[in-house]
Design a protein that fits this description.
Blueprint (H helix, E strand, L loop, with lengths): L1 E8 L12 H5 L2 E4 L12 H11 L3 E9 L8 H15 L7 E6 L11 H13 L4 E6 L7 H6 L2 E4 L8 H17 L5 E7 L14 H14 L5 E5 L12 E7 L2 H17 L11 H10 L6 E4 L15 H9 L5 E6 L1 H10 L4 E6 L11 E11 L2 E3 L9 E3 L3 E6 L2 E6 L9 H4 L10 E4 L6 H4 L6 E3 L38 E3 L1
Parallel strand pairs: 1-3, 1-4, 4-5, 5-6, 10-18, 10-19, 11-17, 11-18
Antiparallel strand pairs: 2-3, 7-9, 7-20, 8-9, 12-13, 13-16, 14-15, 16-17
Length: about 500
């Protein structure tokens, strides 16, 4: 058997006006040909796909991996290059049996709302209908009609924070091969659910969403179904064909339909529970001031999370700290390339008036003029401690730690690994030694931060990934989607089915 393996991974925030160009991908990973084999054994989706294929002695044809963090829409030229190189890999052999694709699944380009569907359709047009096409995706993917039409298998993460990248790739590999090897081929059914909810409002670590995931896993364990994926579409994707969904894979199509609807109804009925209790910035500062134990207080600035495609350049917390005169020892990271470059220019130990914040989204995030002391300078490279992505190398570009009284600000060209404590530790900012830490992430950080603090507060902050979804300027997403429409349970009968 011969299989092509490729990857295109980027999560789009429609409210971030900054286009993701090729250079944005270069900051993370562009690997071509046999360079992909460097990911064998790594905690990523491609690593899991490789393991599944190697177990069956499949002849692996490596294509291209283009991987980056969340951001604005992707430059169409980047996607065109990806498709061209993927087709080149396919054409290396007279025939192939399967194509395995690692995708995020919630990606827009400057020309196409449904980037993943566009990619899958392009690959299908080249390989024909007999070749198996299997895709791994993020839990926050938007599984579109086009993706379902042209895929045999689609698998999503089952954890949030996401710590099962490898396992999801492995599931995708095994199920894709099952389409080739098994007499009774797996059938895939999707139920679309017209709802979006804030990504900071649920987790698979505990609570109702965790219980729902556990129900799906029990169905697999009891062999009622082969696989399931519950997709909470990331809620900052303003597209026409947008919805959350459930995919179930089973040997019997009737079983897949039955349990897809079962899980979809349960998810839909939980919609009101997916609303976080938000604190104001001032309230969290007061909590930190009154804190008497050794645990740091975490202020969750999810609205400015670059993991969610926001710009990461908000200084709202710094402004509130300065206005209140609080003496709480605070750590925060901010995307601000000009400030980082200025720090490198004037050097460690010197002071200057810096303009910090608002460099990426000035219409939403303001700029502060403040005197800063340059505490340290860095090249921006660090290794994640995990558990998610342990050992993965990130580079936030030329960076610096600026001190403003009792506030330490890491300024950088871009933020990767938001939820990993090494974003601070690697640059001399030990999180456990601060009284207040601002984390620009939705939920990913909880896997690591929960190990040393339970004082975590979701906070009402400005940004392109606002928790208040009704405050965002949606133009293309249907107004019949919750929370823009209350929706009654009887409308579940009108949910859209898709089948592979």
């Amino acid at each position: 058997m011969k299989a092509v393996v490729i990857e295109f991974h980027q999560e789009t925030n429609s409210f971030n006006p900054n286009v993701c160009t090729r250079s944005y991908f270069e900051q993370s990973r562009i690997a071509i040909g046999e360079e992909l084999f460097e990911l064998i054994g790594k905690p990523c989706a491609l690593g899991g796909i490789f393991k599944a294929l190697q177990e069956k002695n499949v002849d692996i044809i490596p294509g291209i991996s283009m991987f980056t963090m969340s951001g604005g829409r992707v430059d169409q030229k980047v996607v065109d290059e990806f498709i061209e190189r993927s087709i080149q890999a396919i054409h290396q052999h007279a025939s192939i049996d399967a194509v395995f694709i690692s995708l995020h699944g919630a990606t827009e380009t400057t020309e196409h709302e449904d980037c993943s569907g566009y990619i899958i359709e392009a690959i299908r047009s080249v390989v024909g209908n007999e070749t198996i096409l299997a895709c791994s995706t993020d839990m926050h993917a938007n599984i579109t009609t086009k993706m379902m039409e042209h895929s045999n298998i689609i698998c999503g993460y089952e954890t949030y924070p996401h710590v099962d990248h490898f396992e999801t790739g492995y599931r995708t590999g095994k199920l894709g091969l099952s389409c080739l090897l098994d007499v009774n081929k797996p059938k895939m059914v999707q139920v679309k659910i017209p709802m979006i909810v804030p990504a900071s409002a649920y987790t698979t670590m505990s609570g109702p969403f965790a219980a729902l995931i556990n129900e799906g896993q029990l169905l697999v364990k009891n062999r009622e179904i082969d696989d399931f994926s519950i997709y909470q579409m990331q809620p900052w994707l303003d597209v026409e064909d947008g919805a959350s969904s459930v995919i179930v894979i089973a040997k019997e199509e009737a079983k897949a339909e039955e349990y897809a609807l079962f899980l979809a109804r349960k998810l839909f009925n939980l919609r009101e529970s997916f609303q976080p209790n938000l604190y104001s910035i001032d309230q969290v500062i007061k909590i930190a001031e009154k804190n008497t134990n050794s645990q740091p207080v975490v202020l969750v600035d999810s609205a400015d999370s670059t993991n969610a495609g926001a710009t990461g350049d908000s200084v709202a917390v710094v402004k509130k700290m300065l206005e209140s005169g609080s003496k709480v020892k605070t750590a925060i990271a901010i995307v601000d390339a000009p400030a980082a470059d200025l720090a490198h220019e004037i050097g460690v130990g010197n002071k200057a008036v810096f303009s910090i914040g608002g460099t990426k989204l000035p219409e939403m995030n303001e700029t502060l003029q403040v005197e800063c002391y340059v505490k340290s300078l860095h090249d921006g490279t660090f290794v994640q401690e995990g558990p998610a992505g342990r050992g993965m190398i990130n580079n936030i570009g030329p960076s610096a730690v600026l001190r403003i009284g009792n506030i330490d600000v890491l300024v950088c060209h871009h933020i990767f690994g938001n939820g990993d404590p090494q974003l601070f530790r690697a640059f001399g900012m030990e999180p456990t030694l601060y009284e207040l830490i601002t984390v620009k992430a939705c939920t990913s950080f909880r896997a690591a931060y929960s190990k040393f603090t339970d004082q975590i507060y979701d906070t009402d902050t400005p940004g392109a990934a606002s928790v208040d979804l009704k405050s965002l300027p949606f133009k293309r997403l249907s107004k019949h989607v919750y929370p823009f429409s209350s929706l009654e349970n009887k409308e579940m009968n009108e949910f859209v089915y898709g089948k592979s």
